[in-house]
Amino acid sequence: MADTKHNPDTAKDKDLAANREDSSKEFLTTDQGVRVNDNQNSLKAGAHGPSLLEDFHLREKIMHFDHERIPERVVHARGSGAHGFFQVYESLAPITRASFLQNPATKTPVFVRFSTVAGSRGSSDLARDVRGFATKFYTEEGNFDLVGNNMPVFFIQDAIKFPDFVHAVKPEPHHEMPQAASAHDTFWDFISLTPESMHTIMWVMSDRALPRSYRMMQGFGVHTFRMINERGECRFVKFHWKPMLGVHSVLWDEAQKISGKDPDFHRRDLWQAIENGDFPEYELGLQVVEEADEHSFDFDLTDPTKLIPEELVPVRPVGKLTLNRNPDNFFAETEQIAFCIANVVPGIDFTDDPLLQGRLFSYQDTQLTRLGGPNFHEIPINRPVAPVHNDQRDGHMRQTINVGQTSYEPNTISGGYPVQARAKDGGYVTYPERLMDAAKLRARSEKFFDHFSQATLFYNSQSEIEKLHIAQALEFELGNVQRLQIRERMLFLLTRVDRTLAERVAHGLGLRIPEKVDQPLNMNIPADAKTEEYQPMHNGRKIVASPALSMATTPRNTIKTRQIAILAADGVDETAITDMQKALKDAGAQARIVAPRLGFLRSAKGRSIPVDYSLMTGASVFFDALYLPGGAASVDALRKDPDALLFIIETFKHCKAIAANGEGVDLLHEAHVGSNGTGPDTMKTDGIVVNANGRSGRLAEDFIHAIMQHRFWNRQMMMEKAAMKV
Ligand code: HDE
Fold first, then answer.
1. How many CA atoms lie within 13 A of 193 on its CB side?
2. Fewest CB within 10 A of the end CB: N or C in the chain?
3. Which residue numbers in the chain have pLDDT < 70?
């Protein structure tokens, strides 16, 4: 196991070291440092007597406990974090003066926090939801926070709608249900009246909302930002994170089961990967647009419901993020970290995106309530590595002991210090954006009103199975909406994205698509979808679909860190297990033995094999693939065990790779996993590799290749067709 606790490479570790408390060989003390003699009994007047107010240890201990909780984040309450570092591939001096992007030798410490949005702190990781992907770069010029999501667009265009949106998605106020779920009336009521949300709704109904792992999802800065170089030249940029393990998801049925079996699934996965030394890696990519090209798109660069298709402006990989250390203490680090989109460094600046502008206010403001005062920047995890000198003073829980007589500027008493820095001394200079001669008004720019084209582009860019999953997600979500008029309004809006999608969902809901709906607000709904004709444009170049928007195009060339179940019982063929275990380990995967009970299995040759999970503690949904080794007695025991058969059936249903060796092949027959005529009877079902004669041969090689594919979606297509659902 790699030592991830202390990484001398990162300067931030040195900073945190001063605040670490390790009591492993120490006496117990009070908060005042007085050694405690009895931590079992409160001070009483006699053994039966009343407790005495004088007991300072009891009072201190209970007082502290009473105040342990702080308000959870109003959104993104559920999260998991990790330390790491970022390095640029080559100098980005031509586009930005940011010092941490100049030199490939610079290792900038970072802390990343992944999160869900809607649920509270203890909710399941597997909710259908957007995921937060927030990165704090502790640069030498101050902290830069890239507070992004795993989807490149957002539900609303203007910050003034954010409280409405969040109130609608959160549990309903009268009975506080449902937890961490959008499948309820208030959410879809709001969405059905907010057509600008339709592009993001396509993303949230897609499998992107159900990541397999935080290590296998993309991140996006969402808004367009600016980068400014030493010469003062400005360009527009979009930030992208691309995971080195590819972008993968789970099925909704799996997500629901994981939520019950292990609500900490993503948190555990991230933690365990880092403890195992399998450090998650993401490439930072930039889409760069020349300032002169600002208006060359058929959408507005400052509209957060639009993305720039990668086929029009390629994503240039510029550096790599590595997460290599778990926090020592969840509360002190992951909970107390305070991200703020306004934390920028020279060379990075904002645009007029009205959502971004609202966020610039919100993040600092929310910390005042959450962390209890204006000094949250002094909490170790928030402290920059860059030195802090200013005239801000006092406030709750002030840590810094500012010396000297002055806390104002200008002054002569302290020689004028601290003194403001010129640009050449690293002072932050706002980009002198030219503002048009404009009237003050509450309005949006005209291009913002095309709410459907990019929703259609996203839908058209998906593979058949991804389209099916979007339809099924909508069927589930709207099926949980109680009010008919909300369902109908949604069906009507969906026709503007894609008619066949709307029809599919209507069929599942047993409804007809209404010809028209009441539109209480000016919703600006076009007469019909532009399905075929929409082609996003940039300087005259057009595209019809954007393959980069589909997860079907993600690289599938590794099984590193994948979890493989080996289902076995007493009497298993030991060589069949050890050969496969070795091959999987060599390929970087984790093979785990699942058996009817914990402890040890006895192989056919009488050897002991340690068990990792019992059928009670393990579940098929924890794994990416399944191996069924031979051994007559083992297979005989498993075929009589309904939990074992369910394990196999679920693995098949969730389209995962399955390998079987020797008698293990019989278990496939027993579980009827090929009952649609394409299964083990013919052994032609994709993703099922068998070797009935019990010799390993190419089995491991074929199995590894199958696991790389992540899922065999044609299996689901066949099952849906057989059930006449598609
Ligand atoms: Fe946030 N958001 N947000 N948001 N957001 C918060 O800040 C807000 C938006 C995002 O792991 C809050 O410290 C407003 C977009 C992440 O600690 C709060 C608006 C994107 C996180 C807040 C948005 C995000 C937050 C809650 C619309 C993707 C978690 C607690 C104008 C680009 C950060 C906190 C973490 C958290 C406000 C929209 C990402 C209330 C007002 C768009 C990843 O300040």
1. 16
2. N
3. 1-15, 520-542, 674-684, 694-697, 726
pLDDT value at residue 4: 41
CA distances from 88 to 106, 240, 572, 664, 711 (A): 8, 14, 50, 49, 33
Closest CA to 696 of 608, 596, 629, 610: 629
DSSP state of 100: G
- In the chain, what's the furthest Cα-to-Cα distance? 90
Tell which one of 75, 116, 120 to mutate to probe ligand 1, the residue whose CB is within 8 A of the most ligand atoms: 75
Atom of ligand 1 nearest to the CA of 81: 11
Residue 254, CA distances (Å) to 74, 248, 375, 559, 695 in order: 28, 13, 43, 20, 33
**Residues facing 662 on adjacent strands:** none
242-270 confidence digits (pLDDT tens): 999 999 999 999 999 999 999 999 999 99
Q: Which of 125, 136, 147, when mutated, tests ligand 1's pocket best, judged by the most ligand atoms within 8 Å of its CB?
A: 147
pLDDT score of 518: 77
Rounded Cα distance between 542 and 534, Å, is: 9
pLDDT (0 to 100) of residue 538: 59
pLDDT attached to residue 524: 61
Q: Work out whether strand 316-325 and strand 281-290 pair parallel, antiparallel, or are unpaired.
A: antiparallel
